[in-house]
Amino acid sequence: MSEKDQRVKVALVSCGSEFAGVQPQLDSAAEQVNAQLIYPEMDISSLDTIEMEFGLQVASADLKLMMARAKAVVEGTAHVDGVFVTSCFRCAEAAIVRNEVRRYIHQNSEIPVISYSFTERTTAATLLTRMEALTTIARRRHLLAREKQSGITVGLDSGSTTTKAAVMRDNKLIGEGWVPTVNVIESARKAYDIALEQSGIKEEDVQAIGTTGYGRFLLGEHFNAQLVQEEITVNSKGAVYLADTQKGPATVIDIGGMDNKAISVEDGIPGMFTMGGICAGASGRFLDMTAKRLGVEITELGKLAVKGMHDKVEMNSYCIVFGIQSLVNSLAQGSAAQDVAAAACHSVVEQIFEQQLQEVEVKEPLILVGGSSLIEGVPKALGDLLKIDVVVPPHSQLIGAIGAALLASGYVEE
Amino acid sequence: MTKVFIYPTNSLILSDLIERFGHTPLAMMEGVHDKITTIGIDSPPLNITPEDPKYGLKYAAVEVPAGVRGRMSIVGPLIDKAEAAIIVDDAAISFGCMGCARTNELTKFLTRDKDIPVLELVYPYSDAEGKDFVYKIGEFLNSLPKEEQS
After folding, report:
1. Which residue, among B131, B76, B93, B108, has the nearest Cα to A47 in the 3D structure?
2. pLDDT category of residue B56 using cuts at 50, 70 and 90
3. Ranges in chain A annotated CATH 3.40.50.11900
4. What mean pLDDT is predicted for residues B53-71?
5. Which of B7, B9, B47, B48 would best serve as a mutation to test chain A binding (most A beta carbons within 10 A)?
6. Is the pLDDT of residue B41 over 80?
7. Fold annotation for A3-139
8. How is residue A334 annotated by DSSP?
9. Which pLDDT does position B42 carry in this prediction?
10. In a mutagenesis test of the A interface, which of B100, B105, B108 is the best target, namely the one with the most A β-carbons within 10 Å?
11. Which CATH code for domain A245-392?
12. In B, which residues are within 8 Å of A21 by CB distance?
């Protein structure tokens, strides 16, 4: 039986997703990754005592049910491979319980757990990456244990803004390509060709291909890839590989063109992770727009930001539209370009801190990856905010492609 | 025969008592039954579809969580139909359970706010309280019109 044929049991710990109109989407996302959502069995009498046992008193009976089900998972009454903790977006009481339940499962078991707050508009596509990462951690631990790349492999990362390609041979990066994403397949082809040319390798000599990013399924089919994998698994693996911290804890932050990921990693295997943000204001897109408005290349924005003082400019890019308004207003009031650049970097980092790092336990080393990590102002702002050193490994912008090439080498021997 | 809304909305005991006294209970079970027996495009029929939280906007604003509005899409129409109501506060989970505290607050408010007879009781925890509880419910139900209301 192949890995994909193994049905993974995922415990659905929610306070009534079936009442919010989102249940068909949850079922659909689970089905696509060959997972089965189950409701952990627990003793009804435990609902009378769970609040005191858990130490959290709540008004909603379904939240007591969430806590009791989490306890059943931790104590092994319910046998599951992963846990999906979910509640309604905008419910404060549920958000408190969801966070504590996730922490409780993470601290008291080895079972991978993720959490998500939904609206009735949540689609299966939004849930898919999370569900795929959860099932991969449960299903492919041996693949994630790989620490060295071997043979000749290629990684293709089809991101929302840029497409990256990496050619690796015997644990070394020998070719790289980085092009803006226009057409998913054409852009990948272009990046792949650039990387092949740089490496001096012929396409027919490539032994395995791994694809990741938004366009991973399309690329996987087109290039006949051995590995098609979401970016949470691939990027966390790639980050600890590049930063040479494959053993022990690490925290990976990936600021992408459209969204961000904060991943808590242990021995190269992702544990808790969050995927945001609410708005593109917390992503590389905002920095790109800032650079354009300041009339500098995106590659120059970081150098400019390092010279500036962020607190001289009031900027909150919680919403990209409001963020741009702040940008325009500050420039109109005569703010210096370097201060605006610093404020933009600080604003993006502040949102990652407020929205995502509250849910992920930050353990050093903190590895920053993705295209935005090359904008010097970003790691500086993150380090200043968290008061720790931020590691930006070499080739951090190629993280997905390198991670995919590394993991794909697991198929060379096969 | 009076249509009597109950809280907790899925209490089998309350529902049974109302029927025994010759009235029609308006309970969650009825709302769910209607949903899963109404012919639609969902197969198998789903309790709550992504459209339902939008129907719930009649009872709660858009910033109220989807789970509350989804529940209200079933409970709200029952309150709309109600000609009388019985609310039991602080009930044991086995008596009938409403999962979401915010939905409970809104359900009780909308019921009290309606111009209909409402009996509000605290759940009994002793035999004596239990007898008094059933007696008060009986008295209330006997006071309601037995004829069909328009």
Report:
1. B93
2. very high
3. 3-139
4. 92
5. B48
6. no
7. Rossmann fold (3.40.50)
8. T
9. 63
10. B100
11. 3.30.420.40
12. 48-53, 66, 70
Give the whole-angstrom CA distance, residue A370 versus residue A284: 9
CB pairs under 8 A between A and B: 89
Is residue A46 within 8 Å of A32, Cβ to Cβ? no
Spatial CA neighbour of A261 closest among A383, A335, A362, A369: A369
Question: DSSP character for A396?
Answer: G
pLDDT-derived band at B44, boundaries 50, 70, 90: low
Q: Do B67 and A61 count as a contact with CB atoms less than 8 A apart?
A: no
Residue type present at position A232: I
> Which residues, given as ranges, of chain A have pLDDT below 70?
1-5, 277-281, 317-318, 413-414
In order of start, what are the domains of chain B with their CATH numbers? 3-143 (3.40.50)
Q: What is the pLDDT of residue A3?
A: 59
Separation of alpha carbons A308 and A311, rounded Å: 9
Residue A19: which of B10, B111, B85 has the closest Cα? B10
Contacts of A34 (CB under 8 A, 6+ apart): A4, A5, A6, A7, A8, A135
Nearest to A120 among B46, B50, B97 (CB): B50
Instruction: Determine the residue type at A385.
Output: L
pLDDT at B2: 96
ipTM of the complex: 0.86
C-beta atoms of A89 and B52 within 8 A: no
The residue with tokens 């044991």 is: B92
State the Cα–Cα distance between residues A212 and A228, nearest whole angstrom: 6
Pick among A120, A122, A123, A127 to test the B interface (most B CBs inside 10 A): A120
Beta bridge partners of A370: none
**pLDDT band per the 50, 70, 90 thresholds, residue B127:** very high
The per-residue pLDDT for A257 is 76
- The answer to whether B110 and B104 have CB atoms below 8 angstroms apart is no
